[in-house]
Design a protein that fits this description.
- Four copies of one chain form a homotetramer.
- Chain A is mainly α and about 475 residues long.
- Chain A has three domains: about 35-110, Fumarase C, Chain B, domain 1 (Orthogonal Bundle), CATH 1.10.275; about 120-290 and about 300-375, Fumarase/aspartase (Central domain) (Fumarase C, Chain A, domain 2), CATH 1.20.200.10; about 380-465, Ribonucleotide Reductase Protein R1, domain 1, CATH 1.10.40.
- Chain A is about 65% helix and about 5% strand.
- Chain A has helices spanning about 1-5, 15-25, 25-35, 40-60, 65-75, 80-90, 95-105, 105-110, 120-155, 175-200, 215-220, 220-230, 250-275, 305-315, 320-325, 335-340, 345-360, 370-380, 385-395, 400-415, 415-420, 425-430, 435-445, 450-465, and strands at about 160-165, 170-175, 200-205, 235, 280-285, 365.
- Chain A has a two-stranded antiparallel sheet with strand order 1-2. A two-stranded parallel sheet of chain A has the order 3-4. A two-stranded antiparallel sheet of chain A has the order 5-6.
- In chain A, helix 4 runs antiparallel to helix 5.
- Chain A starts with a helix and ends with a helix.
- At the C-D interface, helix 8, strand 1, strand 2, helix 10 and helix 11 of C face helix 8, strand 1, strand 2, helix 10 and helix 11 of D.
Chain lengths: ~475, ~475, ~475, ~475
């Protein structure tokens, strides 16, 4: 049958790169994400919600004893393919699932499946269920592994001198571990935000317009009934719902996920730039068979870091779709239906990017000689800041301007800045006030790393405790 | 001087509609927002941070006694105009502010202003300070007023029958108050999220690359110093910072604000559609002098609701800018500088939209006859759902399909659906099982409002308590 | 092998709704799009570019006679699956394709495949090739069918009276055909824009940094060589290229496609609202087996129109990704690689939405009684505009204000507006000046449709000629 | 009056950074943009359209002789401030303008102002008029100056050796002029696109729903009348219009402008990276009084290039607003009103960014020693590509893999790549086949710049002719 042939399409007949490239090619990504994010996974979660309803109807004495077991048994044989065939016939996806479940049930029990609920009771609840589970079973565990790895590297490199950079210009020195601890902190914060947003996801069993019209025909307290059904699924009910649950809960999760991807993208971007030929402070390990360029055999391109940034650019604008989906006319229009089907891709993009970053970071090589030689380029000039501050402190009236002038003099004369400073008569009486420690920093700017090392340790310690790593 | 002339531009020489139209024209908006969101307001907050630093330097024994008072006095004379003139000269905005402050100070104290801090210590901290204050002093109070008004209307109309609508089609009945309670709940949730996000904003006094390089020259414990300066401003320090604070805290606030605007836009959109000529369930009050159309004198256009939706379309895509600004190379590049200057507009758009909605909702007229006549269009057909559910419940095997067939028969025959149902012999023995209450609903579908009224009350009560309204 | 198992994933193991739902389920969409938009299709086009290069190398006397035929034969056996396996090994997709092609070739010819070109010579050129063909072979023919259908309906309904609506309020009358001719015109314009943008797509055979470094080793005139290779593929060379072609050409096509989807979305939105229960001017035909709601058997939801709008909300923000991809550092960074793989989905979304709209519009029923009764609601009041204009014309000083007052009087008194007008003594001497035609319109506002009918005809005629339909 | 006080707000009471910082502070930007993009400018253009209508009504014999002159005279006294005051009273902006114009006219003429037209006839036409003029009088002349400057620099530096970079890694050599000619070409293309889009802007005089209802009361051929009015303004009529003109024409211009900003942003980003301390191939000239950092006196930050990229991030997502505004219900809803008022900012951002780039590029210093020393880092290794290609050409079977191996050997052994090559016995017989020219390149990779110099010249020449510079 042509239908069947169509369904047996190969993976390379797909048009979405997630499916044929980033998700299905990667065993680690596929196995963790599929149960929650695939269409098969969605249908699995929908049956689970249908069953929870029947169970509670049984408790209420409405469904016949044994109906829930019957439904559960029937559901275990349902496949997405079968549901889609039924949908092709009747043009309604939830009713299709219900029909397919019922077919496999004893006729006397069948009618209790979906009794008193509406399609979106099932869909909204199943989505919350699968996304919440995805976060706790797959996404957060993955991000915690990445966080742990970042902490390990940050602590390992907490004393490795690196020149700090602002505007792409050498600024003040710090340590490589300190630079990484930025990401420890930002990723830590995002993990907490994701966790919180997922735990706020709600279900609903409130019927076609949210007023419990249907269920109140059968039940004394349909609001309590909703609560009990959802408790079976470890979900809370929405404070209010229409045909659908309030969109803001899921929207907050999408925001948390995209902003976490933004943190990974920034990390990736930094690593990418640190691999520039002229900077070369870090290196991705290359496999011996790996080809860098189809035409330049010597190239070593930071393709993994580039991929993470590219994914961020592809995914981040999509948040706008979900702001737009906040607007649903009256008790709901369906213009959020197709669009909401793209949400799993957003979640998978963060998961896949984290897996990718872990792999490449675990083999990252930090190049000490490059760090040193880059620092040395500015070793002389970075004395400008501590000098200006100490001069100010010791009472020199317009120290910032004075020091700026001295940097210009040094640049023009070719003498080192330190020599220019020492040669300046006006400054002499101020320099004499400097303490030994202060003078040591001026002479050896590699000591001018402030609290970099201590702060690395405290940031890593804070997040280890906070996340119980 | 041409400079001056340029600065004396009139409001209609501006190109941004916020400035010349939505913000400055509206006294209520202007007076509440300007202290925090205008450029003058920003400079005011920057001076406040500079002063807090000097105060703490005084406590540490670094600044001379009286320096902070001197700075405070000097700052009170500083105008944005003066700062901009200095910036035109030296091309650096924070240094310009520092110069202007120092000019007005005793020379011996002047050098302690900005000692040991970097521009973005001041800017990031001042931004957090003004946005946090804006939220607590202006935005949340405004949104709470709107929430209160929504609760009042929802309770007033909690028993007003309205036909529920999904896909633009009549669905099941509910009440107008219940429909509004959706927005009570969603706006309530957003107020809490905004509040939380604002309280998470952080400051930083950690220097040019975040490692406290400069401050550690002068202070034993620069991390503690940072904490103390910020405590003066009721802010927490960032867990980690580079030249700038972690961007995610402010990003979360932007998200919370835009998603709140989305809730207002949905409400506005609903009200807009309820004003359609054919629906006419609500009306905006028109002023006697108001003109609806320059050419159709009878028009009554829902321009306020349209404006709120339009503002949402203008503002919501801007979140993407701030995702992009998460990426800042190494210890910071400046490519987030111009873009971050547009943030106040986002905040003002929510404020202005709330003020606008309050005004129009407070005069909203609910048209009872239209509600009734719209309901009556579907009075007969909405029996389909309760009938199908009760038939299922009482054991009719394929009730959904049966009822669907009956709706088609009724449509074709021109007989009412109720007559078609009553005339169906097969159904007779099932209908006989219906309880009186169930039969009453079938006969009088206006009773088929489920928990609409009770739920309205409970939602309003929940949010009144939650927000202490 | 686990590898293989992974590759044999079923369609419902996918996470992207395009793949499992909108594209692969629809035979018409799949068959037209797959050759160009699937990964298999991409690899097919890449081999075609590789072959064109070998052919031209043969012409230049560099490749051995017969090499191109050999390459062509070898390429015919290449599958995406094989290429991906090789890529898994060597981590470079184009080199993988080259390896796989060469394996099947005579050793003496093999080395001429990819000689002197770089990966992105192949990728950029293949993308331009497949997208250009997709537009001319699939997308534009499909859109032309939709345009033709719109013209047919517009002409059929060119005299069908409909009340015009602005702000959701009844405005002046027009015809249903005139309303549709808006979309004839806007879609016509987009078809031309898409066509133009596709014809501007360029290829490039200029090497790793665009300076023809490699090809200039072998060839006297590498610029001419590039032109000849591309002429074989009916493509123009880029005016300038780096490793990649200028991104703006493809960006313009993406813009044209998304803006065309916007036109379809507006059409869909109008049809959706015209199906509102209270308006009911059009109806989608429902299949006899179709289920409208899982719980409300009588519902007839405009799901196809909703789907088109939803798709637009899902796709339109993605343009931002491609603005961001305009920025590629120096001669190219790879941060546009993953993101550019999502482009086919954008193109498929327009194709699928057009197919969907055609199907539903071809069965659209226009409900004459509803059109009439809706018009009648405002029949009286719409006289306000012609009256005000004619009064002005005949010299009444402040006609707009006068008429506005009369509408208020009519509203309050309950008398018809026409009666209020006729009863106004002040107006009498002006009304007497009205011509018969003018009076006829005032008496019978259904004639007040201006040029609606003529304009419908001229718009349809214009676009039929313009597009040679 | 409090009203007045509010209107006399200073520039620093504004919240939009465009108004107080980027637009009004910059004389060049302000003077060129204000006549078209300010609110005062908009009102000026609206009066011009109103006058054109009266003129044509006079020609048609409908308006009294002299009415148009009277209107023109009256209009010359109208100020935005006055119009806004009237709008505050009657809540309708176009009617306010009409009232203010009429007040200043002879009573017998006054009624012909706005006779037979609707607000959006005026607004849409005035917007097209001012944007078209802005493009031709301000934007394109400015962009042409930038293009000219880029051509000058590209030609000046067409032989300046620079290492090409892909993925941030050294690739093949080219010239600095060639690198710049990328932007000559891309900006050239965008100028043409902007020009074309602006010339496609249309006006409309077709009334409240686009069907010429009102004007057909007065005129025999209202379509011809529309054409004549618009011809006075050098505009074409829309092929079809509703209350508003088809949105796609203006949308195309917005796209062209944003994508041009994307080109500038990429250029700025490249220049930014070339200024990195480790690369240092270009330098922005610093003013002697300029301060780079408030705390690091030696810093030279590329703030102008950063600003351009930041502006692009702020502006580019806004396109989504205008896709959304494609959807306007029926003959128009007003949800595009507030949003469309933000369009001038988009145009001004490109103008201001171009002015900024011109200033900084005109003083850009190219640092020859840095270019040389950066090239030298990779001088040895870049031989890999020409070697691999020539080996392939001369029949070496798997040259790419062989050369890749040699690069690894060279890396490990510490010997130069050239030595490793020469020392390889297997290669000897192939190397002997190399021509002198080929060998020269292998020995001196600085000659391996392909067509860089020639291509620079041809690209610059092409665009000079194309744009008649």
């Amino acid at each position: 049958m042509s239908r069947n042939k169509k369904r047996n399409l190969g993976i390379f007949d797909m048009i979405n790169p997630f499916d044929f490239r980033y998700y299905s090619r990667n065993k680690e990504v596929l196995e963790k994400c599929a149960p929650f994010l695939s269409e098969e996974g969605m249908i699995r979660h929908m049956t689970e919600v249908e069953i929870a309803v029947v169970k509670e109807l049984e408790v209420e004495g409405i469904a016949l004893k044994g109906s829930a077991n019957d439904a559960e048994r029937a559901a275990s044989h349902v496949t997405a393919s079968e549901v889609y065939e039924e949908e092709d016939r009747i043009k309604h996806n939830v009713r299709a699932l219900v029909n397919v479940m019922r077919r496999n049930m004893n006729e006397k029990n069948a009618r209790f499946v979906h009794l008193g609920v509406t399609s979106h009771d099932i869909i909204c609840t199943a989505d919350s269920l699968r996304y919440k589970r995805f976060v706790s079973h797959a996404l957060v565990p993955e991000l915690r592994k990445l966080e742990k790895l970042l902490i390990d590297i940050a602590l390992r490199e907490k004393s490795t001198l690196q020149i700090g950079r602002t505007h792409g210009q050498h600024a003040e020195p710090l340590t490589f571990g300190f630079a990484l601890s930025e990401y420890v902190s930002r990723l830590g914060g995002r993990i907490m935000r994701i966790d919180e947003a997922a735990s706020n996801l709600v279900g609903k069993i409130s019927g076609a317009v949210g007023a419990y019209n249907a269920s109140s025909l059968l039940l004394k307290d349909p609001v309590l009934f909703e609560k009990r059904v959802l408790r079976r699924l470890s979900l809370k009910p929405a404070t209010h719902s229409t045909q659908i649950a309030e969109p803001e809960h899921l929207l907050d999760l999408i925001h948390a996920v995209i902003s976490a991807l933004g943190v990974l993208a920034n990390l990736a971007d930094d690593m990418r730039h640190l691999q520039r030929t002229e900077i070369a402070e870090v290196k991705e390990e290359f496999l011996s068979e790996q080809v860098g360029s189809s035409t330049m055999p010597h190239k070593r391109n930071p393709i993994n870091f580039e991929n993470v940034k590219s994914m961020f650019k592809a995914i981040s604008p999509r948040i706008v779709t979900y702001y737009l989906d906040q607007i649903s006319e009256h008790q709901r229009d369906l213009t959020n239906s197709a669009s909401s089907r793209f949400i799993p891709e957003i979640f998978a993009s963060l998961f896949a990017s984290s897996v990718r970053l872990r792999r490449v970071l675990s083999r990252l090589r930090v190049d000490a000689p490059s760090l040193k030689s880059n620092f040395n380029r500015s070793r002389d000039m970075i004395r400008a800041e501590p000098l200006y501050i100490l001069l100010s402190y010791y009472g020199y009236p317009n120290a910032h301007e004075k020091v700026r002038q001295l940097t210009l003099i040094s640049e023009k004369s070719g003498r080192s800045f330190l020599e220019a400073v020492k040669g300046d008569k006006e400054l002499r009486r101020y320099l004499m006030k400097f303490t030994d420690d202060q003078m040591k920093i001026l002479e050896n700017p590699e000591y001018y790393t402030g609290m970099a090392e201590k702060k690395t340790a405290s940031v890593c310690s804070f997040w280890s405790h906070q996340l119980k790593l």
